[in-house]
């Protein structure tokens, strides 16, 4: 009876303890595992792992863990982390009987050998948190534990007058229950440019030199930055107070003035004409365009030229080519049975029709998003055939490509764990994938055709961690979209929302990068907290104006090209010679491969054919129709860095130089034969025949090839060559030399 009584008393005590704990939790809102003095595993212990780097990708947070112990990357799986820490090897990693002998503590403080080395001191706050938690029995949290909802730093912007100055950043976390907490001692810190500012483990920022950068604080899954400006010496700097053509100039010049960088002067008319024609029409200006523009004395002739180019067929072709490249349009097989010429052609025609009509870009994207129908006939369905070159449509790949293309968000990292450098979680990832799990491709009217359909019975994506279905959810949203009907309609409606900042900022940044060679956010398709814009107000201003223009690309391009900033010279001022981020002067930009080829054809007047394409096809209009050729479709385009359309990444297009390019220009069939043909029967022969002096010939060659007249020194030296050698040979050499020059190869 005594034994039975003891068991009854113990059972009653357990019930009473559980009841008391439950009441305590209801009254205080804290987990029932502990009173206020006992650390919470999720709120207190896991941040220790984070701060010490234990759950980083290079340590126990890697896919296979480290030395037999695995944690989820940056703590995306707290339940699994508790099990592996406490229950996987009982009494070893965590020894509640002798807390000081817990391997979790001993390795962290360097008391026993540890591959990761010593992580913190025994008398540190981190060590005390672990000891207190283990002494309390290493309890797991019970019930809902408030999660981190956001973090903020004490200063959004820091300005230093000289090197060596310091400032302290404090980090505050806000939780889902509304509570806040100073987490400076638990956060991780970093800098984008240590030559401008450094930040130590305690959040102390130190200026190291002039320039601008961002320092970061990271806690839980959130990263937040603070702008840091290191000012150069004020002595001798005078702001030139340049005129402003529009809001773009004001936003850029405000930034430059703050950084004590004087912008360059305007480029001359010759430079402007060539620059804007290459940017908007993908070709150099014709001789007739040059002469008309240079003879025009009107004050607004640059604005008139911009309008004329925006209204041209060349602009329609070029914009179609740029987006067609990102959409991966080619005739590579995706059906498993035949080519995809007709779907590719249908998609190209559809895109060009939209651009020619100056249709709002958000409406184009919305139509592609909700597209159904024949891929041979309904061009907008091309999004579901060109992005995924596979017999079966892959929702994960499609969601990642869609996000990167239209929102500038690379969310692939969140497939297996919360994004390590951005705010996106696995729930965000699988919620976005669920927009596309309902899309299928069925056999169409012929072997090349597929019908894109919506399957209402298709289940949503399953979470990789626990296998639960995740309903379709917009990025940044808390709740999923309405579960009735095709979820893509909700995605399309969000794209068309004028307040969709992700879309507005991404498209504006892409247009800016096309015209300047570098995005305000760079790379252009990598928007994240740890890759902030070089000029935040400028990007916001462009995004707002894009929305005001009804998301049409022509008006925004018109604004950018009419700005003084776009028309600045490539020659930097003394204060701007090191500027690579703030657009104080124009950057030399190497021509894309397709534009370069079209420019050679335009200047020489000698056409070039492309594989399986009609005669006269421009390089910017060429798409690969060669089933056995998996690169760009043309070996010269390959040589000069044309995108192979293997991904939606803007980085697939390269303008980097190579030795093979040099050799091709010297002895290949692209430039040399066309120069010789132009000299025998074409453009160069016509110039020579119609000119009355060597000076006229040389000037005409310069205008045709480089869209400018030669300098006096250039003209004098070349005229001398005609006096000591056969003039026809000299003219051909001059023509070829200019065609192979860096000045021709670059837009400046």
Structure in words:
Residues 1-23 form the signal peptide. Keywords: Signal. Among the domains are: 44-136, no CATH class; 148-230, Sandwich (Immunoglobulin-like), CATH 2.60.40; 269-311, no CATH class; 314-496, no CATH class; 591-610 and 649-747, serine acetyltransferase, domain 1. Strand 7 and strand 8 (204-207) form a beta hairpin. By secondary structure, the protein is α+β, with helices and mostly antiparallel strands. The protein contains 28 helices and 17 strands.
Give the helix/strand layout.
Blueprint: H1 2-28, H2 41-52, H3 78-87, H4 103-108, H5 125-135, E1 148-153, E2 157-160, E3 166-168, E4 171-175, E5 180-182, E6 188-191, E7 197-199, E8 204-207, E9 211-219, E10 222-230, H6 247-259, H7 269-281, H8 287-295, H9 301-310, H10 313-326, H11 341-356, H12 361-369, E11 373-374, H13 383-386, H14 395-407, H15 426-433, E12 439-443, E13 450-454, E14 461-462, E15 469-470, H16 488-495, H17 501-516, H18 536-548, H19 553-562, E16 589-590, H20 593-604, H21 635-639, H22 659-667, H23 672-680, H24 683-690, H25 694-706, H26 712-724, H27 727-739, H28 742-745, E17 746-747
Parallel strand pairs: 2-10
Antiparallel strand pairs: 1-4, 3-8, 4-5, 6-9, 7-8, 9-10, 11-13, 12-13, 14-15, 16-17
Helix pairs in contact: 2-5, 6-18, 7-9, 9-19, 10-11, 12-16, 14-15, 17-18, 17-19, 23-24, 23-27, 24-25, 25-26, 25-27, 26-27
Contiguous helical run count? 28
Task: Characterize the biggest β-sheet.
Answer: 4 strands, mixed
Coarse shape? globular
By DSSP, the count of extended strands is 17
Gap from first CA to last CA: 98 Å
User: Unreliable segments (pLDDT under 50, ≥5 consecutive)?
Assistant: 1-34
* Radius of gyration using CA atoms only: 32 Å
Mean pLDDT: 91
Please identify the structural class as seen in this structure. alpha+beta
Instruction: Please state roughly what percent of the residues sit in beta strands, choosing from under 5%, 5-15%, 15-25%, 25-35%, 35-45% or over 45%.
Output: 5-15%
Query: Order of strands side by side in the largest beta sheet?
Result: 2-10-9-6
Helix content: 40-55%
